[in-house]
Amino acid sequence: MAETFAPARTKHTGVCPPARGAVVAGLIQATPVPVWLVVVENPREAERLAEDIALFAHAATTRGEDTPPLSEPQPGWGNATGVTPALETLVFPESLADSRDMREAFAASAARMAVLARLRTLSAAADLKLKTKKPEPLLLLTTLAALLQPVPAREAAAQAELTLTRGQAQPFAALLEKLHGLDYDAEAVCESPGHYAVRGGIIDVYPVTAEQPCRLDFFGDTIEEIRLFDPVTQRSGAAVERITLPASPRVRLASSPAGLADYLPAGAHLVLIEPAAMDHESCSLTPEVRLPASGPDNFGHVLAHCAAVIGVSDLDEATALFDGPDVAEVTWDTESLTHHRRYPADALIAQERLQFEEDARREFLGRLAAWNKTGHGIAIVTARAGEEQRVREILAADPTLKKLRPQFLRGGLNEGFRVNYRSGTRNPRLENPGPAPPVCGLVVVTETEIFGRTRPRRAPTARQSSAPPRAQVDQLLDFSELIEGDFVVHLQHGVALFRGLTKLEATDGTREVISLEFDDAVTLHLPLTESHLVSRYVGLGKARPQLGRVGSGRGEKTRAAAERATLDLAADLLRVQAAREAQPGEALPPDTDWQREFE
After folding, report:
1. Alpha-carbon gap, residue 483 to 498, rounded angstroms
2. Higher pLDDT, 333 or 530
3. Among 120-129, 247-256, 271-280, 396-405, which is the least confidently predicted range?
4. Cβ contacts of 240 within 8 Å, gap of 6 or more
5. How far apart, in Å, do the first and last CA atoms of the chain sit?
6. What is the CA radius of gyration of the chain?
7. How confident is the model at residue 232 (pLDDT cuts 50, 70, 90)?
8. pLDDT tens per residue across span 31-71
9. Coil, strand, or helix at residue 209?
10. More confident residue, 537 or 362
11. What is the 3-state secondary structure of 172-193?
């Protein structure tokens, strides 16, 4: 017999697209549950909405006493009190087909695994009923397509990972075998997720779900130290106590029959943005969720696992999931500021365009002042500190705008909106003796309305740091300026002789490499993608430098000594310069003997 479950359902209508972030942030602030799962139409919208929600969630904790809340408390939202905990935001991407760019597909799979690992940690804590003083809610944004894709079973994912701690007894050779079993690639230099490299008694490994690679320093068969390091410069960083190495996404694990629901802790809330559009896209959005004995129904399992399902939309369109007498309704009064600001026609140029922009800005700011007089709070979102300073100057230059006391927020919101509080309630934080106008709403303004331009929103910064591909490598050294036999410095192995750019035949075709000769006539062929590891040798004297030896610590010691010598030389030059500037008289010409001696 099929089991049925119907979570509490609420639909919020009248929410224009620019106001979605503020509304969802208000929901999260009012009901602090462990996980908020927000489903949108496409991946790009997930990234943008994640940024907007984080913007308004942060603003809710830092707003001043004279600024109204970003959203009015609604019936049934709960009564959250105290300090709002920090909001952790993650995006659960769609799994890409292997036929697409392999690097991009691997990155997407690794990002999915990182989210699942975080959810597994939360679920484990919930299963053990571990309590924290101030739990940090997790905001997880995804698309319907990503939600419906299969994920590894929770138990299988836990068994296919390796945890290493400082001081742990771990045979060196056995760890290399385990890395091979987890399908990590052995490389000369560890610089991308899923890679590892061996250098003497050190193993560099980049966990596929981590933001940085780790360096394992062994003493015999004991892990003496674990440090993070930069995959670009290969320099060691902070020490850590433990790392977790999950299996590579290429390892095929058993799929979870419940999909993402297998990882969600109890009490999670599900938010669907524009559920009518999703209803047209998939027939699985039904009010009653049946859990079949066989066959995947990932959305049904997720829906049954959540304590509440909330729809957020602009128009009140009919949907199967939010249709019925048991569905609570909340109606918002929001509008975009697009129709409150005039923009110049394309035909206007030069002075005419500038004059139109000035008049349109003055007209819009006058309307903003009028809204403020009727009880609307004002918040202005700018992307940079320079834009905020310019807005402050514009407001200060107009006598009619000096009474505005806006709250400035830092973010990438491209379109402003206005919220009218339907109940007409007053903000308790604004209660003062004597008459005061009611707080009727909030106006959020962006650079688009003030400056008349839309700043392109940048793609989110990659969570994982890795060495750039060949097309993006910043050539710090122009190899065309070198001749064969010149001295260069390799970051790991020290001083070498440059033997030119050569071509080698490989299984995947001909590859161009940088040939470096080290001590004992050992030649290392370096791929062009690793050219950032090589720099020009700058000698501090006329003596011939000692070549580095591959696999020894000589190169590192030589590099450290050269750095110290360079710093000492720079300090001497500065002292000489300061002493000469302190003496009266004419300055020496630039080609003096003392300068030539140092050169």
Report:
1. 7
2. 333
3. 120-129
4. 166, 214, 226, 227, 228
5. 87
6. 30
7. confident
8. 888 899 999 989 999 999 999 999 998 887 665 444 455 55
9. coil
10. 362
11. HHHHHHHHHHCCCEECCCCCCC
Could you give the angle at which helices 385-397 and 350-373 cross, rounded to 10 degrees?
80
CA gap 133, 109 in Å, rounded: 33
In three-state secondary structure terms, 24 is: helix
1-22 in b/e burial notation, b at 16+ Cβ within 10 A?
eeeeeebebbbbbbbbbbbbbb
The two three-digit tokens of residue 233, written as one number: 């410069």
pLDDT in tens, 17-27: 999 999 999 99
Q: What is the mean pLDDT of residues 375-404?
A: 90
pLDDT at 2: 35
Q: What angle do CA 117, 118, 121 make, to 5 degrees?
A: 90
Q: What is the DSSP string of 469-511?
A: PGGG---SS-GGG--TT-EEEETTTEEEEEEEEEEEEETTEEE
Amino acid at 141: L
Cβ-in-10-Å burial (0-12, 13-18, 19+) of 132 comes to exposed
pTM given for the model: 0.71
Strand pairing class (222-229; 236-239): antiparallel
Residue 157 has what pLDDT? 92
Tokens at residue 72, please?
A: 């009015």
Q: How far is it, in rounded angstroms, from Cα 583 to Cα 252?
A: 75
For residue 93, list its beta bridge partners. none
- For the record, the structure tokens of 173 come out as 């050779």
Higher pLDDT, 580 or 121: 121
| Number of neighbouring beta carbons within 10 Å of residue 509 | 6
pLDDT digits (tens, 9 = 90+) for 308-326: 999 999 999 888 888 888 8
